[in-house]
Amino acid sequence: MKNEKITAFAALAARSLTAGTMQSITFHSPSGGDCLKCKGTVKKIGGGYVVQFETSMTEGRVAQENVPADGMEEAVETYFDTYRKADLTDKNGTASVMISKKGAVTFLKKGKIGDTSSAPVQTESGNDRDKNRLLTGEEEFLKALGVSDEKGRIHDKKQSKFRQICRFSEYIVEAEKKLNREGTLYVCDLCCGKSYLSFAAYHVLTAVCGRDVKMTCVDLKQSVMDFCGDAAKAAHMDGMEFLCMNIDDFVPERTPDLVISLHACDIATDIVLGFASRYRADVILSTPCCHHRLNSDMDCPTLDFIADRSILKQKLATAATDALRLLKLEAEGYKTDATELIDPEDTPKNVMLRGVKRKNFRFDSDEARQKREKYNTAYRFFYGKDPDEKLFTCFEG
Fold first, then answer.
1. Which partner from 151, 331, 363, 371 sits 20 to 30 angstroms from 25, CA to CA?
2. Domain residues of the chain, as ranges?
3. What is the CATH number of domain 143-383?
4. Reading across the β-sheet that carries 62-68, which strands appear in turn?
5. Alpha carbons 394 and 373: distance in angstroms, whole number
């Protein structure tokens, strides 16, 4: 599609890539066909930069294309034959183009895109994970939260937290592929605390994935929620809200696309998972904290040879509680897995529980009944009693 505003955006993208200041470029809102979204990430090959475009298509297909700086303008204009919206994120600013259904083109630009005088040149290369992070430290929310200084340098005491945030950001990118392709995403972070991961999720979904996002973060500490609200304003993250309330009392405005939770203490994780499954969230990402309930309530004589030793009982309770949680999610119609959030040296509380809602799951099917019975059997084994079907795993009120 030829248009002077699109041509200006394409030239800006080429300049940003040539300068090495481009962070991402994303095309979305397809006008038709089998393409869903096209995301471009920057790679350094030899002495120059290329954008690796990955196009998500129907039926789970993916197409890739590497575009060098000298072919960037032409490639960008060509992509507008398929998509009606594009977002460019540069170290020094952002730009976007929107094409209405009637063909009107809107071009927005903020900052000095492609300017190398005030930002370090991109250093990403190959598969070096440390240099190929989604975050650099220069993001405004990291400065507002005290993770990095005004120059984008990560504070020494926050290096571990930064690695955690970066790894979680990768999980968010993976999760976004499983969410609705159109419209505003609705994300809930429950027991959010200082909301490091809330901000990371919002940044990645908007700036990297090119999505519109409404995020609600809930916690009990008013002072922390006030701090987070101020940080969101400072980082211009207008789609975030912070509510001081008990998560038992929180009612979402609609079905959440994504529910996240980091280190919700003990049964608070069960409350979060119960909330997510009850409101049928599409994707759940939860990293539990302590596991006191099963550690204190375990009633399984068969395992006394382990439970008689305190440290081993604690480890058993940790693994068993998380396994029960995943079983319960499967009985609720989710595909689940458990993975490591970050290196155990950074935090021992590093298990990530993931759930993705199954689209064709039927609660009255034989499969569903078998999964419920599998969960019930495991619950009886550890607790010595039947579970309350109204409650989630170890949460007993």
1. 151
2. 4-127, 143-383
3. 3.40.50.150
4. 62-68, 48-57, 35-45, 22-30, 83-90, 93-99, 105-111
5. 16
